[in-house]
Amino acid sequence: MKKISSLFIFLFMCQSVVFAQETKITVREDQNAPKISKHIYGHFAEHLGRSIYDGFYVGDTSAIPNKEGVRTDIIKALKEIQIPNLRWPGGCFADTYQWKDGIGPQEERPTMVNSWWGGVTEDNSFGTHNFLNLCEELGAEPFISGNVGSGTVKDFADWVQYTNHPAGSPMAKLRKENGREEPWNVKFWGIGNEMWGCGGNMTAEYYANIYKQYATFMNASENNENLYRIAAGATGDDYHWTEVLMREVPKSLIEAVGLHHYAVIDWKAKGPSTNYTEDIYFKSMKEALKMDEFVAGHIEVMEKYDPENEIDLAVDEWGGWYEVEEGTNPGFLYQQNTMRDAMIAGATLNIFNNHSERVKMANIAQTVNVLQAQILTEGEKMILTPTYHVFKMYTVHHDAKLLPVAFDSPEYTFNGESLPAISVSASKSEAGSTNISLVNIDAQKEHKVEIDLEGMDVKKMQGQILRSGKIQDHNTFDDPDKITIKDFKDFNLKNGKLSMVLPPFSVVVLSSKK
Ligand code: AHR
């Protein structure tokens, strides 16, 4: 009898271990849930290192195939991830940029020193026309960050007039003389960048006044009614910055407040981009996941002043930031991109989706050859990074309606510290497909999940996965397809319950099909 009861206890314990390992997730439809703005999937191209020059832009005399000087392989790759918007020309560079130096005949354009990024000469060969024509080619909304720190209100207002005024104004006339008849109608305008730092080391109170002045004069013409003005936001948990802007700026002058947060383990020792330990990996993920706390914290402040939810939060810089690759210019911020970056991208985009009632825009830093890049180039070669592949898998969420999820994540434990191992977001597209993106950041353990699709009438699903053998794995110019999106079929869908095992450090996206 004693033997039987011990066997029973043993079996019961085994069973509870199995149950404890399975994470139950519920996904439900909510009529009041917001749409996930496609602009959360925005990108960023600064005049920094090899982002523009020797990145996007090789010039129209280059042997590398190009359209008006921009690499066609990059254009094709960005179209494939349905790039919704592109932020330009900075970053810190924006508050040094004189836009009038970047128009007119290229050979007559004055040069400047790019004082933030490597002290190199900027010859202004890539300017407003190049950028806006590129956006048109990509089908992406341009997002211009204007110079507030070292510019003037008039220069800023002139830039808006140059890009947006149809005819009859001095700037519209100048644009036409430079070969562009129709205005581009740029909607997204950043009023300065990091004004607490490289934008001019201002206090929030001082910037709030300056902001109002710039925002007022940008609305000079009839055609500018649809401007979307983004105030340069806080970094990390600087809630005071957001509080001051929300309190001081009238709603008639602002459409969004910015926020920047980089996953950096230590600004003085950022760690390598590829050859890192699990300790460094864990710390990077800890920093990346703080995005959830920061976004929630800034939203809480915004709620206080804007319970009507009329002003958006735009996380217009985010991503992983490591030491530069050996032998490269430290001012160029060139880093490789591994499965760690895929984890940061997948988990961060899930955070934005789940906060899409207020987060309407975000821009990963940066698109080509800088920081957490989606694309790396070397001469005529180009590779797509794990981060790129995550953006591709997540296109299903663009402008889809959020489906709220609820679950308790198992823990990813390392050296006595824990992080939530799993992150999830879900949406329903206008065409009716249900999409679920799951990320398991645990470097060691797989995690079993069961998703209850609460009466959603989902009968068939198809899946994709991004995974690799080692967390440090990455694509190289010699092995560009080491990490690519693969079909994922290891799931079971029965009676509205979807179950699967998420491999360690993997991203999975499932979509229903008819
Ligand atoms: O993305 C690189 C830099 O990081 C940007 O120029 C600046 O805004 C931020 O500090």
Q: Could you report the average pLDDT, rounded to the nearest whole number?
A: 95
**Small-molecule components bound:** alpha-L-arabinofuranose
Structural class: alpha/beta
| Fraction of residues in helix | 25-40%
Task: Count every helix, treating DSSP H or I runs of 4 or more residues as helices.
Answer: 10
CATH third-level topology of the largest domain: TIM Barrel
| CATH top level assignment of the largest domain | Alpha Beta
Task: Estimate the strand proportion.
Answer: 25-35%
Low-confidence spans: 7-20
Question: How many structural domains in the coordinates?
Answer: 2
Strand order of the largest sheet: 2-5-8-9-10-11-12-13
Q: Quickly give the CATH architecture of the largest domain.
A: Alpha-Beta Barrel
Reported for the largest beta sheet, the result is: 8 strands, parallel
